[in-house]
Every structure is written in structure tokens, then in C-alpha cells.
Amino acid sequence: MSTENIVNIAQRARIAANKLQYVTTQDKSVALNKIISVLADKKQEIFKANRTDKENAEILVNAGTLSASLFKRLDLEKGDKFDTMLKGVSDIDQLPDPTGQITYSCKLDEGLELYRVTCPVGVLLVIFEARPEVVVNISSLAIKSGNAVILKGGKESILSLAALSTAIQSALADTVIPPDAIQLVETREEIKALLELDKYIDLVVPRGSNSLVKYIQSNTRIPVLGHADGLCSVYVDKDADIDKAVRVVVDSKINYPAACNAAETLLVNRSILSTHLIPITTALQKANVKLHLDSESLSHLPSIDSSLIKECVAEDFDTEFLDLEIAVKVVGDVEEAIQHINSHGSKHTDAIVTENEQVAKRFMQGVDAAGVYWNASTRFADGFRYGFGAEVGVSTNKTHARGPVGLEGLVIYKYKLYGNGHIVEEFGEGSGKKKYLHEKIDVTEKIV
Ligand SMILES: NC(=O)C1=CN([C@@H]2O[C@H](COP(=O)(O)OP(=O)(O)OC[C@H]3O[C@@H](n4cnc5c(N)ncnc54)[C@H](OP(=O)(O)O)[C@@H]3O)[C@@H](O)[C@H]2O)C=CC1
Ligand SMILES: N[C@@H](CCC(=O)OP(=O)(O)O)C(=O)O
Fold it and tell me: Ranges for the Aldehyde dehydrogenase domain (predicted)?
């Protein structure tokens, strides 16, 4: 696409975003329900496009140039993926409108009232992996939060994405939401050109590998909300219940090994090696997980399947395997576990298994991650599971939005000041000057 056309896409997104400032919750609901019905009507057409994407991808899988997990992500037909995707749109419709919410109010003077009110970010540019349903998840979240979005998914999903976004745009054509609110681009070159357009685009969300996020951060002036790799750890403490430890570690690793919220590192307290390590590693091996063991854990596991054991190297603790592999390290206490996670983790999601509340609290306060869990699988790090309907992805940024990004992550705020000819000159410390009241206003309803 020419540079001129790319600028045109960004300009149209900007115009759509400006219009979206005025749409009502009811308008959004009409649009989301229309999207559900058009997607349902066009299901076979969308599946046909998805099948062609899969046929093309299969050639690459057979040639060994594409992973089986990428192929699995690409598949929109399998199981209940399509229905779950539609349910996500309906769930988002049911959630409260995130815009127009008053998060601060203050009476500065008689007749002078200040409100902080949530509002859309504006125009988003979201880059994501070859997972077709993400286009529907993000479009729904964008519409409900009043944002326009330009989307680019992984190249392997190009036909599925085109079918889905065309369906969404045709649904919007029958509503007050401008179809330009949801636009698709297809290539890295187009992204490169869009990254220059800080005049039209307000926020870039790169969702994918660390290298993608780093590339975007280094090549744009637009603020970036990075959704990068998940180097998640589970720490099994000396006061861990064995059954809970096995359940949490195994689920964190095998429930969906290619996801960013799968565990990549297992930290085990030294004092429970003889009791907990064997049941946990046996369960992992039963699930075909390859263990990258440090020398201390290796010396405690003389008799397990050696084809699934490797002595670890230092880099294993900085590796996102995204597969049935896990690095195992013995630590002395929770402090060492926290220190390890804070120096090797990716600030995504980390879990502790323990029955000791004090130790759990220490872990949850000390670990610097978007999600810190006690006796629960890292796989819960997900917008749907958090009750957000769906997610843009899992933010590994520390500011604006952290962890699964749903509707609240897609709004900012503005301060609205309602006066009656008030001027600053009248206020001050001297005689005859007015003093600020700074009284909280009891707000019960939405304001304009
Ligand atoms: N935190 C989160 O929410 C999530 C994180 N991830 C992480 O993503 C990784 C795996 O996903 P994977 O598909 O391999 O990710 P990639 O980063 O390889 O690709 C993701 C997307 O980024 C695009 N892309 C990559 N580099 C560039 C670039 N330089 N310029 C423009 N576009 C670029 C790709 O385009 P193209 O296809 O055209 O090459 C694709 O659309 C794992 O680390 C996983 O943890 C995955 C999902 C969610
Ligand atoms: N958040 C979702 C999906 C995670 C995700 O995006 O995975 P993937 O695209 O396969 O890296 C989940 O927990 O299953």
C-alpha cells in the first residue's frame, strides 16, 4: 500500500474516533449485537477463508518452518472457538460502559465544580499474532470503549482476518458507529509507515514477542503499551500443600504451553526436595514435559525418565520455551525466589504455592509483576477469566494498564470544570481573596 493510502487509513480512523466521542451506550450495544448477527450469518464464509489460511500454514508446518502451536492458534473452526468468540462480544455488551465514569469530583468554589471523567484514548494501532479471533475481541473492546482501531495480525492469518474485519465493517455500516472505526492493515511495511503518524494515532499496542515490542518502542514517538513475552514462574514454598503444588505447577505448564501466561520456571524450596520434588516432576513428566534441572534438583531425581531430563544452562532461566519444557531451580527461601523472579521474569504473572499466609503476602508484595497469585495457576492471567469479556492482551508495561487489558485499559480521562464566570485572580491568601473550598461532591449520576 502506498504511503498516501496509509495516511488515509490513519486519517479515517481519526475521523471515526472523533465521531465515537458522541455515541451512546445504546448505540454501542446496537453495534455489538449487529456484529454478532453478521458474524453468525457469515460463519461459513469466514471458515472458508480460515481453511485456506490453514492449508497454506500446513505446508509450512510440514516443511518445519512453522510451529504446531502457531497452527493451533490459527484454527478458528476447531471446538467451540467461534461460539466463544461471539459470546465474548455479547459479554462485552453486558459490561458497564467504561466511558463517562466520574473518578474524582471536587467543589472548588460555589458554582465551580471539577470532575475527572473517563473517555476513550482515541485511535489505537494494535499488532498481534496469527490468532484470528483477536480481531473480534479487540474490535468489540474498542467499540465499547469508544476507540477507533487499526489492526494488524500475523501474516499466516491474513484471509481469516480479512473475512472477519469485512464482516465487522459491514455490520457497522448499518449502525451509527463509523465502519472506519475498525480497519485492517496487512504488512510490516504498513506498520512502519503508521508508526510515523503520531498526528493521528494515540496509542500503539504491540502484542507478541519481546523483539516486536522493542522494535515498536524504538521506532515511534507514539506512546506504546507493550504486551510482550511471559516468563512466568511458580515458586513452591516449604509450606506448600503437595497436591496443590502438583495441580498448580502442572496446569501452569501444560494447560496451554504456547501462551504467554504459561509457566517457564519452577522454583522449589530446598527443604522440601525429598517430599515435593518427586511428585511434581513425575506429574510433569507424565505430561511429557522436559525438565531443565539445576544441579541440586537433578541430584534429587535419580530415577525419573532420563529422556525428559536435561541439566540446565544459565540461559534456561531467561528462556520462554512456549512448549512442554520448564527450567527448575532450587532456592533457599521466599526472598531468593522473589529475587530470582525480579531479575529473570518479564513482569507478567508469577505464582507461589504455600499454606503460609505471611510468606504468601511477602511474595505478593515483593514480586514486581502484573499478576501475583497465591495457590493458583498462572494461566488465569487472561481478560476473559478476569471477567473483562475479552482482552486486548496482557500488558507487560508498568504504567497506564497492567496485566490483562479490557475496557478499563482502553480509557483515559479528562477533567471537566463547570464554572460561572469564575477567574483565578479572585483566589489567594490576601485580604478580600476567596479561599478554595476543595469539598468532595457526592455524585450519583453521569454528567455530560
Ligand atoms: N502479552 C501478551 O498479551 C501476549 C504475548 N505473546 C507473546 O508473543 C510471542 C509469540 O508470538 P509470535 O507470533 O511469535 O510473535 P511475533 O512477535 O513474531 O509476531 C506477532 C506480530 O508482530 C508482527 N511483527 C513482528 N515483528 C514485527 C516488526 N518488526 N514490524 C512489524 N510487525 C512485526 C508479526 O507480523 P508478521 O506476521 O507479518 O511477521 C505479527 O503480526 C511469545 O513471546 C508470547 O509470549 C503472545 C500473545 C499475547
Ligand atoms: N489470554 C489467552 C490467550 C493467550 C495468548 O494470547 O496466547 P497466544 O496467542 O497463543 O500466545 C489465554 O490465556 O488463553
Answer: 4-295
